[in-house]
Amino acid sequence: MSEIKGVKRGLIVATSLFLAICTLQGCSSLLLESGSAGAGIASTALAGAVTKNAAVATGIGIGVQAATRAGIQYEQRKIHDEAQRQMAAVAGKLKVGEVSRWSTRLSLPLEPEEAGRVTVSRLISGGALQCKEIVFSVDPATHDKDRTSRFYVAAICRDGSTWAWASAEPATERWGSLQ
After folding, report:
1. What's the mean pLDDT when you consider all of the chain?
2. Which of 24, 43, 63, 104 has its CA at a distance of 20 to 30 angstroms from the CA of residue 96?
3. Residue of 61, 84, 105, 107 lying closest to 167 (CA atoms)
4. Distance between CA 9 and CA 27 in Å, rounded?
5. Tally of CB atoms within 10 A around 156
6. pLDDT of residue 39
7. What are the backbone angles phi and psi of residue 143, rounded to the nearest 5°?
8. Residue 166 · residue 131 · CB < 8 Å
9. Which residues, 6+ apart, have CB-to-CB distance to 103 below 8 Å?
10. pLDDT tens digits, residue range 142-175?
11. Of the candidates 30, 51, 78, which is a domain's last residue?
12. Are 4 and 49 in contact (CB under 8 A)?
């Protein structure tokens, strides 16, 4: 039983250290892949200490790996939603042709905070359903002089007194399938 406590303690320390480093680095893809792989390996080792049945231990490891991956993807979707809400709030105040700066301030820094410019390219509708098409840039960080700005198109709509992201796939290249 003390072996299990030692494995658990080591797993907690290693996971905490890994998450701290990744939070500082903003390494979401590394976190997704290595976090789920690490969880699978560690839980298989832990399950191996509990049961001698290799199939059961492997099943536990695969289950924990899948749950870890789903949890990380859920957090990434929340981060993307937070960034989209922040950008929609800036763009919602603009008239067609106006340009403003936007930036993200993430509550959970699994990804780097970004900044850029946003403009309203056209009004999509009027009346009760107010929507705008926006074009936004993601400008390189000040320390990343070799990279150029990237540009994306999305739609936002008024939802009561706030503006909300309305694109089904705002920028697959930018956020992948994890909107």
Report:
1. 73
2. 104
3. 84
4. 24
5. 28
6. 57
7. -85, -5
8. yes
9. 86, 113, 114, 115, 116
10. 666 778 888 999 999 998 899 999 876 545 555 5
11. 78
12. yes
